[in-house]
Amino acid sequence: MPMRILRAVLRTIRNSRRLAMGLVILGVLVLVALFSPLIAKAIGGGQDPIELAAYDKWQVPGPSHLLGTDQFGRDVFAMVVKALAVSLQIGAIAGVISTVVGVIVAFVAGYKGGWIDNVLSTFTGILLVIPTFPLLIALSAYAKNVSLFQVGVMISIFAWPFAAKTIRSQVLSLRTRPYVDLARVSKARDLEIITTELLPNLLPFIGVGFASSALGAIFGLVGLEIIGLGPGGVIDLGQIIYSAISTGALTLGAWPMFVVPVGLLTLLFAALNMVNIGLEEVYNPRLRGVAGE
Amino acid sequence: MTADAPPAVAVDKSQDSAPISGVRAWLSRHPLAAYALRRFGLYLIELWGALTIAFFFFRLMPGDPIQTLIQTLQQNYIYNAQASAEIIARYKHEFGLDGNLLTQYVVYMQKLVLHGDLGPSLINYPTPAQTVILRALPWTIGLLGIASVLSWVLGVVIGAIAGWRRGKLGSSIATNLSIALSHVPYFFVALILVYIFAYSMGVLPARSAYDSNINPGISLAFIGSVLKYGLLPGLSIVIIGTFSWILSTRMLMVPILGEDYLVYAEAKGLKSWRILTRYALRNCYLPQITAFGISLGFIFNGNVLVEQLFNYPGLGTTLVTAIQQLDFNTILGVTDMAIFSVLTAVLLLDLLLPLLDPRVKYWK
C-alpha cells in the first residue's frame, strides 16, 4: 500500500512540471527551515545572532551581515531564516488540523448524505462565505500569551471549511463510481470502503486541501502580526515585516528587513499555489463534468 | 387490460394537480417565484446561523472581554462600594450583559432585528455602535465595491482571452504570473505600492481617505481627493484580485474550448472573436458570478489589513480600533455588518442569475 501510493505520487509529479516546481521550491524552503538552527549558529560564529544587541543596530547589508541588522542589533539574515521555520511550522500545524477535520466532515457529509450532509454543508458554507478574519483578530486579541501551537489551532478553526469543501465534492463524485458500488454490493463495511476505495483516490484532493489551508494559515498569522497581534516570544516572517514598517526600516536603508520576508512569503505562496494547481490539473480531466463544481 | 392504462394515468394527473392547496399550485406554476422564496428562506437561515455563531463566538471567547470591561468599569467608577454595584448593574444592563448567556442572546437578537440596535459603543459611549459602523460603512463599500467589481471584470476578460489563446506566449505569461501571485495577500502589494508611490516618489498619499484641508461634501475637489487617496488601497486589491480571477476563468475556459458547439460555430464560419464573446465567454462568466459572491467574504478579510495599513476610515480600521480598545459591541457589530453585507450580496447575485442565464431553471 505505501509503495503503491509512492509510485502514484511519483507518476503524478512526472506528469506536471508545475507540480514538480512547486514541490521543489517548497522542499528547498523546508530544508532551509530544518537547518535554521545550524545556519543561525554559522552566522553567529559561536554566539546567538538574534540575541538583543548582539551587534550594532541598523547596520546596512555588507559582508559581515548579508542582510544588515535590525533596530535591536540582531542579524536580519539569521532572523529571516528562523522566522521562515516558524511560518512553515504554523502552516504545517494548522494545515494538518484543518485537513483532518475537513476530511472527517467531508466523509461524514459526502458519504452519508441526507440531512447530515445538508446540515454540515450549510454550516461549512456559512463559514466559507462569512468574513472570518474579524473573528480571528478578536480571538487572538483576547487570548493573550498563546503558544505557537495554540495559534495554529485557532487559525485552523477558520481554515478547515476550505479543505472540507474541496474534499466533499470529490467524495460525492467518487461514491457513485462503479467500483464503490461493487464494494458495497459485496457487503464491505462503510469504514472499509472509505479506507480502501475512497481514501487512496482522494489523496490528491486531500493534498489540495492541505496546501490551501496551510496557505490560509500562514496568511492568517502574517495578517495578525501585521496589526501587532501575533503570539508572543516567537518571531515569524510577518513579525519582521511588522517591525520593518513600525520602525521605518525602509527609510533607514534596512530594506532587506522588508523585502526579504515579503519575497520569501510570496515564494512560499507561489509554491503552494503551484502544488494546488498542478494537482488539480493532473486530476481534473477524470472528474470533469462529474463533480458539478 | 392494457387499454385501461392510459385513462388511469390521466386520472392520476388530474388528481395530482387539482386537490393540492392554492399556494402550492401557484408555486408549481411559478418556478422562479418558488426558487426565489426557497433561496430567501435559506438566506434567512444562513443569516441567523452566522449571526448566532458570531454572537456566541464573542461571548464564549477565552479571556472574556466582558470581564475586562467590568474590571475597567470598576477601576474607573468605584468611588464607593455601594454605588459601584448599582453602577455596574446599570452598565451591564446598558451593554446587554445582564442575565445568563441565553437571555443576553435573546435580548441582543431582539434589539438587532426589531430596532437595528447593536448596543452602545464602549469608546464612544453613549453613541450606539450602529452609528459608528454606519459612519464607516460607505468608505468600505465604496472602496471594496469598486475594487472587487473592477478586478472581477478585468480578470474574467483577461482570463477568457488567456484561455482562448492558450499556448501563446502572452497567455502563458498571464497564467504563470497569476499562479505565482493570485494568493499573495493584498497588503503585500499595498506595502510595496506605498513604498514606491508614497515614500520613494511621493506622488500619492499613503494615509487617510481624503485631504483634511478639503471640506467633505459634494464638490469636485473633494471627489478628486477621495479618488486620489483611494487609488493605492484600491489598486492593491485590484492587482491581486485580477490575478486570481484570471486563473479561475482560464480554468473554466479551457474545458469549454473542447465542446461540440464551439466546433460547430467554427465550422459555420463564425469569426473567432464572435465565437469567443458570444459562445465561450457566456459559459464561463456565469459560474464566475456565483464565485464572485462567495469570494466577497474573503475580499473583506484582506481588506481589513489594507484599510488598517492606509488608516482608511472604513469598517476594517473601525474593527481593529474597536478590538484594541475592547469595544465589544462595535466588534460584534462590524462582524454582523460584514456577515449581513456578504450574505445579502450573495443572495442578490443568486436571484439575479436566472435573469442572466436562460439555462437556469429551478424546477426541483
From TrEMBL, chain A:
- Family statement drawn from the similarity comment of this UniProt entry: Belongs to the binding-protein-dependent transport system permease family.
Protein name as catalogued: Peptide/nickel transport system permease protein
Membrane topology per record: Multi-pass membrane protein
Subcellular location per the Swiss-Prot or TrEMBL entry: Cell membrane
Which stretches are transmembrane? 83-108, 120-142, 148-167, 202-224, 258-279
UniProt KW Transport keyword = yes
Q: Which UniProt keywords apply?
A: Cell membrane, Membrane, Transmembrane, Transmembrane helix, Transport
Species of provenance: Kribbella kalugense
Per UniProt, residues of the ABC transmembrane type-1 domain are: 84-276
Q: Looking at the Swiss-Prot or TrEMBL record, what is one Pfam family this protein matches?
A: BPD_transp_1
Automatic annotation (TrEMBL), chain B:
Query: Which protein are we looking at?
Result: Peptide/nickel transport system permease protein
Domain named ABC transmembrane type-1: residues: 137-353
Which family does this protein fall into? Belongs to the binding-protein-dependent transport system permease family.
Q: Which organism is it from?
A: Kribbella kalugense
Instruction: Give the membrane topology, semicolon-separated if more than one.
Output: Multi-pass membrane protein
Q: Write out the GO cellular component annotations.
A: plasma membrane
The record's subcellular location field reads: Cell membrane; Membrane
Mind telling me which residue stretches traverse the membrane in this protein?
Answer: 40-58, 141-164, 176-198, 218-247, 284-306, 337-356
Alphabetized UniProt keyword annotations: Membrane, Transmembrane, Transmembrane helix, Transport
* Record Pfam families: BPD_transp_1
